[in-house]
Design goal:
Elements (H helix, E strand, L loop, with lengths): L4 H45 L10 H6 L9 H5 L2 E7 L4 E4 L8 H16 L6 E4 L2 E8 L2 E7 L5 H19 L1 H10 L6 H4 L3 H7 L1
Helix pairs in contact: 1-4
Pfam family, one: Fuz_longin_1
GO biological process, one term: vesicle-mediated transport
Family: Belongs to the MON1/SAND family.
Length: 205
């Protein structure tokens, strides 16, 4: 049946919102390849300022995760064909395939904002294609998993890899424990409970 004027207006409004989201994610992809440098520089400066008080401060996250974090200021970081991010529904960084989660906290916050924006319209965001990137989302409450890829993999294949990462986390903590943790404290730093397991997760993708 033909759409009523109100339905057509709502459809056009939804299309405009999707265009806005695509534009926002184009800006996000720029963050992944450039803007993060400014954030990393700020973090490095803060670490240098606090060096006398905490000699290990600049390496806190590396020690916490049990792995050597890749410097996101390096061209090699920006050239990776696939990035995997895990964050909480509060936008708190949990895992990043490359680089320091703290340095990428702003980027992860943008990702969560996009997810929340779409869900506010009673929709679910699954993927965005922008500037040669495939961006795939997997919402598994209380976690959100995101892949930003420039590979030939299909959206379904990338989503399956995100599912593997999710199951890896659940196998370590159980879904019941995850839910309880974030019910008690939405901005809980889950990395503390996952410390030492990052290399296993890295190998899944």
């Amino acid at each position: 049946a033909p759409k009523s004027p109100d339905e057509r207006e709502e459809s056009q409004s939804d299309e405009l919102k999707i265009e806005e989201i695509s534009k926002d994610f184009s800006e996000l992809s720029t963050q992944l390849t450039g803007i993060a440098l400014d954030l990393e520089e700020e973090i490095r400066q803060n670490s240098e300022d606090n060096l006398e008080l905490s000699p290990q401060g600049s390496r806190r996250d590396s020690v916490l995760s049990g792995k050597e974090e890749e410097d996101i200021t390096m061209e090699a970081w920006r050239m990776h064909q696939k990035h995997i991010f895990v964050l909480s529904e509060a936008g708190k960084p949990i895992y990043s395939r490359y680089g320091c989660e703290e340095a990428l906290s702003t980027t992860m916050g943008v990702m969560m904002a996009l997810v929340s924006f779409v869900e506010a319209g009673k929709n679910a965001i699954r993927s965005i294609h922008a500037d040669g990137y495939k961006v795939v989302f997997l919402r598994k409450s209380p976690l959100v998993l995101v892949a930003v890829a420039q590979t030939r993999q299909s959206e379904q294949e990338i989503a399956q890899e995100l599912l593997y990462v999710y199951y890896q986390i659940v196998s370590l903590l159980t879904l019941t424990q995850l839910n309880r943790i974030f019910q008690q404290k939405q901005n809980y730093d889950l990395r503390r409970l996952l410390a030492g397991s990052e290399r296993i997760t890295d190998n899944l993708v």
